[in-house]
Amino acid sequence: MSILIDKSTRVVVQGITGNQGRYDTRLALDYGVNIVAGVTPGRGGEEVEGVPVFDTVAAAVAGTDANAAVLYVPVNGVCDAVTEAAEAGIGVILATTENVPRHDAVRAVAAARQADAWLVGFNTNGVISPGKCKIGGIGGDNPDALYPAGRIGVVSRSGGMSAEISMALNAAGHGVSTAVSMGGDRTTGRSMFEYLELFEADDETDAMVIYGEPGTGNEAEVAAALRANRLRKPVVALVAGRFQENHPKGVSFGHVAAMIGDDADSASAKIRLLKESGAEIASSLEEIGKALDRRLG
Amino acid sequence: MKLTEDIAKNLMRRANLPVPDGAPAETAAQAGELAAGYGGTVALKALLPTGRRGKSGLVRLVEASEAQAVSSEMFGQQTEHGPVERVYVERGAQIEEEFYLAFSFADRMPMLTISTAGGVEIEQVHSTTPERIVTIAIDPLKGLRPWEAIDLWSRAGLSGRPLADVGRLTARLWRAFVDLDAEMMEINPLALDKNGRLSMVGTMIEIDDGALGRHPELPDAPSQQPDNPRERMVNEANRANPGGDARYVELDGDIGLLVAGGGAGLLQHDMIVDLGGRPANHSDISPAPGTVKTEAVLDAVFTNPRARSLLIGYNHLQMAPVDKVVEALANAVRHNKVDTSRFPIILRLFGPREAEARALAAEIGGVTYLPPGTSLLEGARAIVEATRKVTAEKEEGAAT
Question: Potential cystine with A126: which of A130, A138, A276, B231 (Cβ 3.0-4.6 Å)?
């Protein structure tokens, strides 16, 4: 197993005729992903990299049984594109776009939830189950080197950090069952805890690594779940952004979400809370492997 | 973007929402004239993009005849948001009861917070009588309907005619919150006069920066440009090249940072501080093709008088080619005439087209390109040590 995506995943690419859509499609095909359809309104009947293009997601689903969607659409089209995919019956929707306006983001999240779809993003570079499937640009032109397969689940607020964590795991003799870049915007389709719940139920995952940042309630929710014994597999946490606490509030340093505001949302507060709740804290990538070895024996 | 009160109230007025008469004044004489036009009691409010002005004397209730004299004390007053340059003059409201309402966002849901204890800061109500605050999440697909708002205010303790009026107004304010792409909207106080008329006496609105592009009706951000010329330069490069903004925030240390990819940047900054280093800035840039914004951040680092070194520390790039970053570096080193023997530059930069990037870096000369597999921590240590060395040499030089 793995979470969210595997060998049976059939991917439709919304916005396949754009530069990014076309480029990522080529790399995904090279990795062996079943990209069965593309969607660009008005371009139905064409082909991109040998993949048939449809005018709507519903037509693509009817024609190809696609069950996962990757979106490469401009920011003002994201809410509609997510809603269209969700209503067409797509189960996993990956929205790569960053800085999605708040009102659009919460509407898209609600529309996906109402249709029982799993929305990944916003501001994500993808999900990869090594050797089985990937959606999004994750892994770039060399997914095998960046994401060797193994039994550790990764959930990261940053796409770049998911690759760094995977490489650190590899250096420590571990590999990845599934790595998820869950999205760096404040609003994301699902919370960090919801991914950990999937890993908890996955019999090919032994432990989880999370990467967190200041802002949002994601890490506090994970801590609460650990305290309530809803997560029994080991959780190793790396939370960056402590330096921000030396500077005035309201200054944004990284992702949109990583803005200093509430003290409870600071990196230090999150680290303290996760530690008290039973997570292993790593303060560098090198410590992740050691923390896993402590817990997995 | 936080709107000043005159702009916020104008938008509300245009939406036919009950806002007291008022207008901005740029001089004390103008404030006096406006006040005389309203007569009776008037409110004078310093126009600054912030709430919480009551305590610092930035909101005054005076008789119309005193408005000119009192406002002349307000003009020019220094605040943390700069000097007071404009004062909002508003017809005094006759207030029987005061309520509070605010729309905001939790991570995944819009939220509505209401209280019948309006007129004071909501934090104060929260710490003394938290039971008087009611908060709900709003389903963004359904929105907030009048009967739901009425039910909520009834739970908060309202009844009778005010319940119906306040409930209906709350549902209309939800529409305005959505239509404006507001991130936050606080009405405090929402005042009820003795004739049962409602009036939005305090109105604070913050617009979602990510949605500003689709609101041409909104004015340009009022003097939100940073004072720092290098921060301003990066902002200008962003404006000239829309999409994937670069961020540059200056701090008071000596290590210049071009770090990217959000997460890896935060982590490297933490590591540098833990190792005793002091960054001269923080930056974030999306590692997309194009070198203009990268160059703008590099120009900022090279022209920052406090910066003594530069770390270019990206996460392992998965899509974007790394040689574009080195191309920007070569340009910036050349036109800023950087002496790389005295200004250490360290690169931790892996990903597509790395061989080309390494060749280009070698041409610049004096640049340390860390070998493949170097960790973020080793990169952080390298820049802290190199910076320590140049600052020690400089102090030695100054001593002899």
Answer: A138
Using CB atoms, which residue from B178, B273, B282 is nearest to A253? B282
> What is the reported pLDDT for A85?
98
DSSP summary character for residue B203: E
Specify the DSSP element, H or E, that contains A128. strand A127-129
Residue in chain B nearest A170 by alpha carbon: B373
How many Å apart are CA B286 and CA A185, to the nearest integer? 13
Please give the DSSP secondary-structure letter assigned to residue B279: B
Say if A152 is an interface residue toward chain B (CB within 8 Å): no
Residues B117 and B103: their CA atoms lie apart, in Å, by 16
Establish if B352 touches chain A: CB-CB under 8 angstroms: yes
**Using CB atoms and an 8 Å cut-off, which of residues 250-279 of chain A contact chain B?**
251-256, 258, 267
Q: At what angle do helices A218-227 and A267-276 cross, to 10 degrees?
A: 10
Query: Within chain B, which residues score under 50 in pLDDT?
Result: 223
* Long-range CB contacts (within 8 A, 24+) of A200-204: A200/A230, A200/A231, A200/A232, A200/A233, A202/A1, A202/A2, A202/A3, A202/A153, A202/A177, A202/A178, A203/A1, A204/A1, A204/A2, A204/A151, A204/A177
* A141 shares contact with chain B (CB less than 8 Å): yes
All domains of chain A in start order, with CATH: 1-124 (3.40.50.720), 147-297 (3.40.50.261)
Can you state the angle between helices B263-274 and A159-171, rounded to 10 degrees? Answer: 60
For the stretch A182-241, pLDDT in tens is 999 999 999 999 999 999 999 999 999 999 998 899 999 999 999 999 999 999 999 999
Query: Helix-strand-coil percent breakdown of chain B, rounded to 5?
Result: 40, 20, 35
CA distance B202 to chain A (A): 23
Largest CA distance in chain A: 57
User: Of A218, A78, A71, whose CA–CA distance to B210 is shortest?
Assistant: A78
- The span from the CA of A280 to the CA of A278, in Å, is 7
Residue A45: what pLDDT? 97
Residues of B in contact with A283 (CB under 8 A): 270, 274
- Give B248's strand partners: B283
Query: Cα–Cα distance between B320 and B324 in angstroms, integer?
Result: 8
Question: Comparing C-alpha atoms, which of B350, B377, B382, B383 is closest to residue A286?
Answer: B377
CB pairs under 8 A between A and B: 167
Q: Report the predicted TM-score, pTM, of the whole model to 2 decimal places.
A: 0.91
Q: Does A39 touch chain B (CB under 8 A)?
A: no
Q: Compare all CA atoms of chain B with the CA of A241 and give the residue at the minimum distance.
A: B266
Task: Out of B107, B140, B273, name the one closest to residue A217 (CB).
Answer: B107
Q: Three-class SS of residue B136?
A: strand
- Supply the ipTM of this predicted assembly: 0.91
CB-CB under 8 Å, A254 with B263: yes
Quote the pLDDT of residue B52.
Answer: 63
Strands A51-54 and A68-71: unpaired
Q: Which of B96, B292, B87 is nearest to B189 (CA)?
A: B96
Confidence (pLDDT) at B225: 63
A158 contacts B262? CB cut-off 8 A = yes
Mean of the pLDDT values across residues A264-286? Answer: 93
Q: Which residues of B218-235 are buried (b: 16+ CB within 10 A; e: fewer)?
A: beeebeeeeebebbebbb
User: For B220, which DSSP code?
Assistant: P
Choose among B181, B271, B315: nearest Cβ to A164: B315
Kindly identify which residue of chain A lies nearest to residue B271, measuring between CA atoms.
Answer: A284
User: What whole-number distance in Å separates Cα of residue A290 and Cα of residue A295?
Assistant: 9
Q: Note the helical H segments in B275-319.
A: 292-303
Radius of gyration for chain B, computed over Cα atoms and rounded to the nearest angstrom: 27
